[in-house]
UniProtKB/TrEMBL annotation:
The gene is obgE. One of its GO terms (cellular component) is cytoplasm. Residues 36-46 have a biased composition (Gly residues). The keyword Plastid does not apply. This is GTPase Obg. Residues 163-329 form the OBG-type G domain. The lineage of its organism: Bacteria, Pseudomonadati, Bacteroidota, Cytophagia, Cytophagales. It is found in: Cytoplasm. Its EC number is 3.6.5.-. One of its GO terms (molecular function) is GTP binding.
Length: 336
């Protein structure tokens, strides 16, 4: 089977450049028989820099780049000439990328804005030339500083998609169909579980030229937090969503139980997800009769905003957009 182009996890070895050594040199000119020290400083080593790029949405371009090496600084020269700095290496990454230590899991950096630059591993400092060490008692210092060594570490780059709304549901709940109707995204749609193997993003147009970003997260099954199904691989993308939209088909055997199962999987993965705003959408309402919809309404949680939709017959889509937009604006307002 062909490998997916959606890569959200890479592990690479980074080595920043070493600083150049300072120069030990003395001024030698005609008519200046006892020129003083004039050794220049070494140049600093090159940095390893992360830079946000809004045009990227995957780490595919770094998948096969296992070793990244910045340039070393050049040694200083006589005449107080400093050495050239080592060439920096800029790794462009999509927004929502975090850098972590592979063993401890410590977060080293996070990119959330287009054009944002963070030095992941700084280059070594260049050594001072002997001109810095002259004094009234040491007029001819014959030593200079060596350059500092660079840093070499393995680092994990992990992408967590930045979206306003995350679609959460079991396989075949109609998440991809809903996204394809609400936005211009064209996810793969078929009548079998796990059709969606990678997350999809779509921009949903709203009234008065407003819009929000919706993410279709691959289907979650019971036990996903323990690694079943697609496991934890895509649950991380839910962490960055402002609002979680739970999608459950109207023809499910027990809608309340499905909702509780989904909620429990998110809680097991990361309890902080329980603090996010939640909406519930009952999909595929064109497959059940009106009396059944009334019974479903009575069985649902009272405090949870619920919308009944059908992507096929276009029912309830505007109401769903209104509910999402209201929830997003309420979330964005600061609480006193």
């Amino acid at each position: 089977m062909a490998s997916s182009n959606f890569i959200d996890y890479v592990k690479i070895n980074c080595r920043s450049g070493a600083g150049g050594a300072g120069s030990v040199h003395f001024r030698r000119e005609k008519h200046t028989p006892k020129g003083g020290p004039d050794g220049g400083d070494g140049g600093r080593g090159g940095h390893i820099i992360l830079k946000g790029n809004a045009q990227l949405w995957t780490l595919l371009h770094l998948k096969y780049r296992k070793h990244v090496k910045a340039g070393n600084g050049v040694a200083g020269e006589g005449g107080r000439r400093s050495g050239a700095q080592g060439e920096d290496v800029i790794l462009e990454v999509p927004l929502g990328t975090i850098a972590k230590h592979p063993d401890t899991g410590q977060q080293l950096a996070e990119i959330t804005e287009d054009g944002q630059e963070l030095i992941l591993f700084p280059g070594g400092r260049g050594g001072l030339g002997n001109t810095h060490f002259k004094s009234s008692t040491q007029q001819a210092p014959d030593y200079a500083q060596p350059g500092e060594a660079g840093m070499e570490e393995w680092v994990v780059l992990e992408l967590k998609l930045l979206a306003d709304v995350g679609l959460v549901g079991f396989p075949n709940a109609g998440k991809s169909t809903l996204l394809s109707v609400l936005s211009a995204a064209k996810p793969e749609i078929a009548d079998y579980p796990f059709t969606t193997l990678v997350p999809n993003l779509g921009v949903v147009a709203y009234r008065e030229y407003k819009s929000f970003v919706m993410a279709d997260i691959p289907g979650i099954i019971e036990g996903a937090s323990q690694g079943k199904g697609l496991g934890l691989r895509f649950l991380r993308h839910i962490e960055r969503n402002s609002v979680l939209l739970f999608l459950i088909p109207a023809n499910s055997a027990d809608i309340r139980q499905e909702y509780n199962t989904l909620l429990n999987e998110l809680r097991e993965y990361n309890p902080e997800l329980m603090d996010k705003d939640r909406l519930l959408a009952i999909s595929k309402i064109d497959l059940v009769d009106p009396d059944e919809l009334v019974r479903i309404k009575e069985s649902l949680p009272k405090k949870l905003p619920v919308t009944f939709v059908s992507a096929v017959s276009q029912q309830g889509l505007n109401e769903l957009k209104d509910s999402i937009w209201q929830c997003l604006n309420t979330t964005a307002e600061p609480t006193e």
